[in-house]
Automatic annotation (TrEMBL):
UniProt keyword tRNA processing, yes or no: no
Entry annotated with the keyword Cell wall biogenesis/degradation: yes
Shown stretch of the complete protein: 1 to 199 of 245
Keywords of the record: Cell wall biogenesis/degradation, Glycosyltransferase, Teichoic acid biosynthesis, Transferase
Protein EC: 2.4.1.187
Protein name: N-acetylglucosaminyldiphosphoundecaprenol N-acetyl-beta-D-mannosaminyltransferase
GO molecular function, one term: N-acetylglucosaminyldiphosphoundecaprenol N-acetyl-beta-D-mannosaminyltransferase activity
Catalytic activity entry: UDP-N-acetyl-alpha-D-mannosamine + N-acetyl-alpha-D-glucosaminyl-di-trans,octa-cis-undecaprenyl diphosphate = N-acetyl-beta-D-mannosaminyl-(1->4)-N-acetyl-alpha-D-glucosaminyl di-trans,octa-cis-undecaprenyl diphosphate + UDP + H(+)
Amino acid sequence: MDSVKILGVPFSTMTLPDTVKLIQDKLAVERSSSRPFHLITANPEIVMAAMQQPELRQIVEAADLITPDGIGVVLAAKWQGAHIPERVTGYDMLIRLLEGASSRGFSLYVVGADEETNAKAAAIIKDKYPGVDIVGRHNGYFKGEQEAALVADIERKQPDLLIVALGAPNAEKWIYKHKSRLKAKVAFGVGGSLDVIAG
Ligand code: UDP
């Protein structure tokens, strides 16, 4: 896959529709890997933080696809004479995937945001996108045993898609930390998307 390196981070040069198509294909195939395809929609803050934090750098390097989440990334590519066609944000990816579920359904696990927001967003998704089968959900304020139970539940439910709204880069760190047990085909952080969906 073509990429443009910005401060060492390899950004995908795919458009939003092409990225959606790639992820739809990942969601549709038989589960072949024991760990999820980890998509990171990275904004300039993540790029800067990855330069300073070796732990985050490692997470970014291990990602399967990094998309430009912010006009700053698109412009940075331009300044170095390269071309990134457009922003590909977590919110846009999520909405397009949900919309596409009418013809290509998939199962979904929703992690993150406060309990009320999480429940409301899950109910709205269920209502608005019948092709999406929500197999589990959990708010983003958990610790200790609750976290262990959540990871075990995701492992058991094996969703096609796992979305994590814990804020960036916490979502990315969380997916990376539990990668070997998150039996989803695809996982990505969605920032404040659940708040937007819940309204
Ligand atoms: N969030 C969460 N648990 C936390 C911290 C944040 O579930 O420990 C949720 C928060 O409720 C919100 C989402 O993460 O729904 C995104 O938070 P924020 O807007 O701070 O993140 P950013 O937009 O900077 O990625």
